[in-house]
């Protein structure tokens, strides 16, 4: 037993998409701060996105975080060279090529795991990596799934599958009630993630593999906290026989301004300029608008957002992903030559590309957040104690909207009615009009009784989120219980091995 069996070694393997990688990097730091050796499995181009953060964690903070870079066979499967992240896939038609390349990582991953010291204690992998269940079995270690969403969504999803509730309606737009929930939640098929709708045989096979792998997984790691969704956490833990651990909001491991600024990717704005601009604004006066790293709205839709912001007369920070690329030439012209930026310069700041979202949201000037309801963004808004305008688009985002608006009471819906699958955005020029954007901003920022109550609830949840991550908090305890559980599994394995001698 000269292989450091007493040292736990957690292997973390995120899916190659920005919203999936960011929380895994935070989780790596959380485990490393508790004394675990952590290895993050990734590829070269994805590693470059978070290298600055992990370098500082290992060099300045001396955390035991290691990086395993696997060669990503993009060219071999017909993808452009260097296409290693979902946000670099040229067309939707190539998504299955991307998954094919990911599946080809199994053999090199298993070879690397076999050579590691200390030996791996568990594998925490994204639910979109179902083949990692087989890898975990080969090494006789627990595989835990990281879903990257809430217990509310997971319970909704589980109940829809179990009761086949979505099959009871006759049209895509007809609402149905999700059975077996503590609250009355209505949704339509057109608002559900792709796995509930008819897809190609290839994507259908993938969703089936994901579902089957989940049934055999040892447990689930969840980026949430007890006070956010107590009833849903209790119910989901029953479903998972208590093998579901809430350890979030993991973004709160970023305490320093530099950590918040560098989180995720290289920002497209100077930190000092961003903070100085925010410092010049009154508290709770700025609306922050960001629709996620996967946002591919049409130029005309972006223009409608801009005109709605302009009409609202509210100070704003607006993140425009893709501006400057060929696809967004029309938008770039409108921003510069039609002088939107010039007209709005006294009230607005436009960030073209990646924005330091956690840094921005945590500033006292921010009074509202127009979000696509991705779970990372939702939690970051919650942590900042900021009320939200919800504009869901695809995946689990419409259910996240139900949580924000209906259950938590900290949001206003902009009026999105059905999903727009990734790659289909060009089929709909304008989803939400400038008038709808202006109306939602006015309602969110208005200090009437409803607005005051919404802001109060948001502020209270922000305080609860921070307490959850502190020593003695519910998520700190969740992390402790997860570590203890894995330690017991390792000790049981050692004991069984010794008894066979």
From TrEMBL:
Coiled coil: none annotated. Its EC number is 2.4.1.-. Keywords: Glycosyltransferase, Transferase. It is an enzyme of class 2 (transferase). The keyword Transferase applies. Belongs to the UDP-glycosyltransferase family. This is Glycosyltransferase.
């Amino acid at each position: 037993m000269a292989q450091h069996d007493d040292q736990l070694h957690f292997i973390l393997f995120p899916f190659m998409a920005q919203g999936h990688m960011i929380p895994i990097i935070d989780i790596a730091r959380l485990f490393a701060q508790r004394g675990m050796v952590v290895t993050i499995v990734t590829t070269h181009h994805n590693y470059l996105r978070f290298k600055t953060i992990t370098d500082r964690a290992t060099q300045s903070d001396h955390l035991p975080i290691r990086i395993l870079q696997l060669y990503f066979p993009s060219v071999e499967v017909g993808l452009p060279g260097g296409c290693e992240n979902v946000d670099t896939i040229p067309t939707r038609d190539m998504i299955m090529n991307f998954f094919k390349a990911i599946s080809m990582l199994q053999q090199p991953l298993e070879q690397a795991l076999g050579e590691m010291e200390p030996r791996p204690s568990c594998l925490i992998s994204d639910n979109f990596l179902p083949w990692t269940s087989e890898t975990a079995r080969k090494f006789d270690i627990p595989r835990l799934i990281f879903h990257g969403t809430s217990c509310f969504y997971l319970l909704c999803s589980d109940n829809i599958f179990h009761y086949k509730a979505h099959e009871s309606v006759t049209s895509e737009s007809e609402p149905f009630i999700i059975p077996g929930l503590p609250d009355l939640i209505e949704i339509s098929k057109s608002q559900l993630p792709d796995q509930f709708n008819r897809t190609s045989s290839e994507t259908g096979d993938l969703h089936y593999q994901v579902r089957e792998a989940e049934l055999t997984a040892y447990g689930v790691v969840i980026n949430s906290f007890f006070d956010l969704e107590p009833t849903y956490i209790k119910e989901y833990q029953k479903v998972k026989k208590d093998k579901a651990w809430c350890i979030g909001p993991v973004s709160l491991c970023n305490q320093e301004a530099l950590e918040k600024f560098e989180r995720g990717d290289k920002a497209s704005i100077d930190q000092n300029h961003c903070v100085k601009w925010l410092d010049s604004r009154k508290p709770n006066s700025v609306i922050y608008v960001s629709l996620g790293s996967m946002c591919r709205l049409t130029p005309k839709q972006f223009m409608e957002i801009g005109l709605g912001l302009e009409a609202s007369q509210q100070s704003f920070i607006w993140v425009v992903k893709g501006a400057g690329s060929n696809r967004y030439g029309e938008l770039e012209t409108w921003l510069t030559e039609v002088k939107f930026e010039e007209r709005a310069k006294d009230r607005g700041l436009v960030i073209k590309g990646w924005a330091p979202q956690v840094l921005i949201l945590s500033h006292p000037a921010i009074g509202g957040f127009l979000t696509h309801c991705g779970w990372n963004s939702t939690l970051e808004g919650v942590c900042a104690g900021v009320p939200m305008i919800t504009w869901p688009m695809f995946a689990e985002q419409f259910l996240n909207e139900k949580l924000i608006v209906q259950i938590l009471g900290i949001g206003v819906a902009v009026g999105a009615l059905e999903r727009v699958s990734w790659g289909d955005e060009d089929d709909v020029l304008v989803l939400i009009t400038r008038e709808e954007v202006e109306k939602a901003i006015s309602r969110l920022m208005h200090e009437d009784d409803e607005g005051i109550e919404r802001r109060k609830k948001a502020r209270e949840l922000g305080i609860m989120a921070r307490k959850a991550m502190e020593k003695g908090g519910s998520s700190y305890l969740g992390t402790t219980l997860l570590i203890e559980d894995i330690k017991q599994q390792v000790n049981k394995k050692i004991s069984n091995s010794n008894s066979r001698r």
